[in-house]
Automatic annotation (TrEMBL):
The lineage of its organism: Bacteria, Bacillati, Actinomycetota, Actinomycetes, Jatrophihabitantales. The gene is purU. Keywords: Hydrolase, One-carbon metabolism, Purine biosynthesis. This is Formyltetrahydrofolate deformylase. It is an enzyme of class 3 (hydrolase). The keyword Hydrolase applies.
Length: 291
């Protein structure tokens, strides 16, 4: 993950998930005060059903001697005492994001453009596709393109190549931007929590490869899109973001596809930005999103 400097006091984001108890906010705030921290933004949520507490704190450090390594070392015993799962990153760190795509290029195009104008805190070291149709799009942004074809026979080798790219390119996040191959259980385990998919329906409705045809056949009045973490269970992963748009009886299935494109792009880019800003915390098969 690439960290940048700007001359202003360095800013960090701390996220916490732990069993709920009184005094967690006090514990965190005290730690920050004792380490020259000044809170800029703080959000928390108490899941009383699961008895689990979630917190995200964006803060600056006023003493230049307090480095991120010193903060992490100092916070570790505090976290252990409260059984916290935690992350501490520079607020302007950029996630190294590998994009997977098949033939539909609208989500890839949207992510490449938003990244190029600085609207997404990510770097894109490469684009991978099981087809060659979208190579020109990656090339137009000077981003390396890898063609990894997938058939039933080549799938294990294709997935091994994909994982090798994830490791060699030091990838933090994999985005399935209309990648139409089902990832194996092993690959999902290897990518656990680091892969986001855009599904072109308002889940849990219309799972599978052809949701717009299913929507047309059902005669829906809304179509939508869902960004979720990828799990071995197809289209069942924890949902990060969803949205819909109104349609009506006059639209063909092909026109529903067209109506859904913009929704898919907006939902996926929001989910990627929130993940990259460490605003999304897992809560079992659900998420807490500090927008
Ligand atoms: N393990 C997972 N892999 C993938 C998921 C997921 O949730 N878990 N999401 C899909 C994306 N997707 C829907 O959003 C989807 C993609 C593909 C299919 C499908 O049935 N594919 C067929 C081949 C279709 C083709 O070649 O065009 C197949 O793999 O046999 C269903 C849903 C991405 N992967």
């Amino acid at each position: 993950m690439t960290e940048t400097t700007s001359g202003r006091p360095p800013e960090y984001v701390l996220t916490i998930v732990c069993p709920d108890r009184p005094g967690i906010v006090f514990t965190v705030a005290s730690f920050l005060v004792h380490n020259s921290g000044n809170i800029l933004e703080s959000q928390q949520f108490d899941d009383r059903l699961e008895d689990r507490f979630f917190m995200r704190v964006h803060f600056q450090v006023l003493d230049p001697a307090v480095t991120v390594e010193r903060l992490r070392a100092a916070f570790a015993p505090v976290a252990q005492a409260s059984a916290m799962e935690w992350q501490l990153w520079a607020a302007d760190a950029r996630y190294r994001t590998l994009i997977l795509v098949s033939k539909e290029g609208h989500c890839l195009n949207d992510l490449l453009y938003r990244q190029s104008i600085g609207a997404l805190p990510i770097e894109i070291p490469a684009v991978v596709s099981n087809h060659t149709a979208l190579e020109h799009l990656a090339t137009s942004y000077d981003i390396p393109f890898h063609h990894v074809p997938v058939t039933a026979d080549t799938k294990p080798a294709a997935e091994a190549e994909l994982l090798s790219l994830v490791e060699s390119l030091r990838v933090d996040l994999v985005v399935l931007a209309r990648y139409m191959q089902v990832l194996s259980d092993d690959l999902c385990r290897a990518l656990g929590g680091r892969a986001i998919n855009i599904h072109h329906s308002f889940l849990p409705s219309f799972k599978g490869a052809k949701p717009y045809q299913q929507a047309f056949d059902r005669g829906v009045k809304l179509v939508g899109a869902t960004a979720h973490y990828v799990t071995a269970d197809l289209d069942e992963g924890p949902i990060i973001e969803q949205d819909v748009t109104r349609v009506d009886h006059s639209l063909t299935a092909r026109q529903l596809v067209a109506a859904g494109r913009d929704v898919e792009c907006q939902v996926l880019s929001r989910a990627v930005r929130w993940h990259a800003e460490t605003r999304v915390l897992r809560n079992g098969n659900r998420t807490v999103v500090f927008r």
